[in-house]
Amino acid sequence: MRQAVKTEPVAASISQEVGRRLRRVTAAGAIYERLYADIVSLKMPPGLLLQEKRIAEDFGVSRTPVREALLRLSEGGLVDIYPQSGTVVSRVPVAAIPEAVVVRKALEGTTVETAAQIATAADIAHLDVIIDRQRSLAAVGNASSFHEEDEAFHEAIAQISGYPGIWAILKTTKVQIDRARRLTLPALGRMDNVVREHLHIRDALAAHDAAAAREAMIHHLSAVIPDVDALRSRYPDYFC
Known about the structure:
By secondary structure, the chain is mainly α. The chain contains 11 helices and 3 strands, in the order αβααββαααααααα.
C-alpha cells in the first residue's frame, strides 16, 4: 500500500520563503524611499559615503535589501557604486539638466493647458490651500517643507488635467533639477516669487484661459530652473 505524501512541511517551507521575500522587498522599498528623499533634499549631500552596514543597522535588516535599494538608486543616477571602494551619493550631472528642463516645460505645458479647460471650483480651492501653505512656509523660511508643497502644487495640476502619470514621469526626469534647486530656495525672496508665480497659474486656471495658463507655467519653470554656473562656482564639489 502506497504511503500518502506529506505535503505540509513543503507547503510551510514555501510559505516561509514567500514571506521572507515579501519582507525583503518591503524593506528594500522603505530604504529606497528614505534614501531617495534624503539625497534629493541634500540631507545626504553629493560625495557622502554610504555604509551598507550602518544603513542595515538603522533599519534593523540584513544587507540584502540595502544593496537592492542602493542598486535602484544607482539606476536612477543618485548614487555611484564602486565595488572595491563603497557607495557614494552622486554629484549632480550638469549635462542632464537642460534636457530635463525641455521635458518638464513640454509636459507641464500640456497638463496646465488641459487643466485650464476642465478645472472645477473644488480644484481651484485645492490649489488655494496649497498656495496658502506655501505662503506660510515662506514667511518662516522653511525651504524644505516649501519644496514639498511646490511638488504638491504641480502634482495637483497633473491630477486636474486627468494625466497623473505625467507627474510620475516628471518626478524621475527632473530629479537632478530638484537637487540643484534645493540650493536656490534659501535665496532671499525666491520663495515669495514662487508663490506669486503659482498665483498667476492658479488665476489662469480659474479663468479657464488655457493660453495664459501655459504662458504662466512656462514663465514659472524658466524662473525656477537654477543658475547652474553660479551654483557650480559656489558648490564645486556638488556638480560634475
